[in-house]
Amino acid sequence: MASKSANASSLKVIVITIVGGLMLFTLPTVLVLGLGMLPTFAAMMVDQRREKYTTLCVGCMNFVGVLPFVARLWSEDHSYAKAFEIMADPFAWLTMLGAAGLGWCIYLLAPGVVSMGIAMRIEQRIGRLRRRQRELVEEWGPGVAGALDNSEPQDSKSAKEGRDS
Amino acid sequence: MADLVKFSDRFEIDPAQPLPDLDSPSGKAYACTEGNGTEFFALVCDPKVPLRIETINGLKGFPKHNLMRVTDHGVVNWTISGRRMPVLILDRPRGARLFPDPAQAIEPFTDEQLARGFLTPLVATMREMSQRGVTHRNIRPDNLFYSDPARRSVMVGECVSGPPGLYQPDSCESLECVMADRTARGEGGVLDDLFSVGVTLLSLLTGRMMPEPTDPQRMIFDRINFGSYACLVGNTRLQMNMVEVLRGLLTDEPRERWTIRDLELWLGGRRLTPKQVKLPTKAGRPLTVGGGTYENVRAVAHAIGRNWNTAAELIRGQDFDNWLRRSLGDEAVVETVNKVTGGATGIQSAPKEEDARLVTRVAIGLDPSAPIRHKGFSCHIDGVGPTLALNFNDDATRQMIAGFIGSRSVGPWMSVQTRSKQDLLELFSKFDKLPTFLNSTGPGYGIERVLYELNEDIHCMSSMIEHLYVTDPEEVIPSLEAVAQGQNRPPIPMDRHLAAFLGARSSDIDDRLLRPLGNATDKRPAIDALNVMRLLARIQALSRNGPMPGLCKWFTELMKPAVNGFHNLKARAAVETSMMKASESGQLGEILKIFDDQRAQQRDQQGFARAQQEFAHCAVQIAQMNLDLQNKDSLAAELGEQAAAVISGVVGSVGTTAIVILYLV
What we know:
The complex is a heterodimer of chains A (165) and B (665). Chain A has 165 residues and is an all-alpha fold. Helices cover 84% and strands 0% of the residues of chain A. In chain A, helix 2 (27-36) packs antiparallel against helix 4, helix 2 (27-36) runs parallel beside helix 5 (80-88) and helix 3 packs antiparallel against helix 4 (53-76). Chain A starts with a helix and ends with a helix. Chain B is α+β, with helices and mostly antiparallel strands and 665 residues long. Chain B contains 29 helices and 12 strands. Classes of the chains: A mainly alpha (165), B alpha+beta (665). The interface between A and B is large, with 52 and 46 residues.
């Protein structure tokens, strides 16, 4: 156990050293990424959950919005001037923030859509079960329901009453 | 004008032509002709009174002596009463009744008339009857007719329209018979008939009938104490030759009584000195029973039989023991009493609740040839059946007979009989089985079963078919068909009488078919109807009297609950269809087959149980899903976030890949 945690902390140190080193050598990129990914940082601050779904949602879309400008930075001129030029471009901000917004939209709309899906699926299954119950009643008569027959919908009940009469 | 009633394809009975002169106490006489014009008369009998069918059969082909013969018998639809009635077709006497009015005297018969016109043909008749093993038991002055218009010869009237001795005046009955209740006098024997001949002879000699005593019991005790001859003849002046025959016929000791042979010899001219009447031996001192004093053993036996509720105390007392062993001085009587009671020890150890039985046995021991007396009921064992048949609707009679059978007195009585006839032995074995029937309370048993076991020829007294006068199990199904097609159908075509009748009359109807009729533990729908149908289907199969659509339709209605007992609606519809088809066939057996298919019912039950389980399982699942539906938002929030993360991840990956390709390639 002690050796395992030592390995993990040493790995962390190595990664931080490498990332720190890389960031030191790619400061314009860090600048564009840092400013462009601000919505993600904001989402991270807001997201209270351990799973960090909000951060993941917003972050993925935000990154896709920032990546073209990072690519432009790398492909045209990897400099502070170019980085500031990109950051001064409103379209860049629109793209980066729009992508983050899209992430927020996905995050906010998904539960509703899923809820509708779940409801539909449950109702389908209830319908199937009710159909089976009706088949049983048609095959065995109302006695098959016994004392449990309080789950039938109104329409089938009235149909049954019609048969009985 | 009522229509002629056809009977037996041979006879035509005219209900518009009653013949009151030929009426019997339990039957109305009507004119009847055969196809060839021969005149008979029909006796339409009271259905409540059992006929002597065995005697009718015994007299079949009887030669033309001076006896009113039964030419035919059966049942007719009698429009006057609106029911079926038993009918006897009898020889029509060509002369009138000797005593048209019992209160009116007639011209006394001369010796010649008596010998030639009455006794000679009568002796031939009695000889023939004796050879056939039947008794008349209806010989009395007012049952005599002239057999010819010239009044030369006398014929004896019919003897089969009622139980033996039922209509006999007490004076015409021997002591052994008169001591029994009127309905329970039994078949008796030829000697009892000869006693009746003696009394009839006396009436013809005097030209008047014996008046009925005002106190019958007093008369019985007088006859016991002084002899029947002295009591009946009294101060009547008679010629010596007539004294001889009357003393011979009216003696109370059966072994001393004249036989047919003696009568034949007398008619042939033999004359003997008249026998002195042998009176019963008197005890040294009288015994007090129920307030009266009695000097001889027969009188004591009769007295304790009549005072049964107080006699037990007397029997247990020393006084009775002293009287029996010392005063009476008859070792044979002591021995007989010991045999039936177990001696003094048996008497003393008999429990209090068996007092009545003790009294019965002591009475048997004291006077073995007398009727059995139990709790005031005095009977010869072959008279128990007619008593029950005549008064079945009387609760007291039913209890009386049940008590008599329960006392099991027939065994001890049989054990002290000096002569046991074959038919009595058969009857004894029947009595041996009766307590078992009596103790079973279900339909087919009980007192009703006793009724039909003891009366082999009576009709079924079931209220459903009593009016149809059914005497044979083969007639039951057509009768029930008539009931089924009638207006007032009972709830179910079975009752205690019908079940008992079938149980007693048909050897094929046994406990397996009768016991379920009274089974209250089986709660299946229409189980009663099913059990009844099983019994009647068996009878129908045995009778083979064709289809009975009405009865089948009745059962299809009765079996509806059993059809509805099928849970599977398709199976139910199939059963209903099969039942309708079977019903159309008119065979109960066909309907029975449907409901006797136990496996189909089991399959249905099992399937229904499974269906119920499945239905309940569905209901539970639906309830669970309804709960899920209510909680879908919390479920969707979790899943939605995950889905959003996945979608974003996928879009992000695709976008990133596209951008990298776009810019770097």
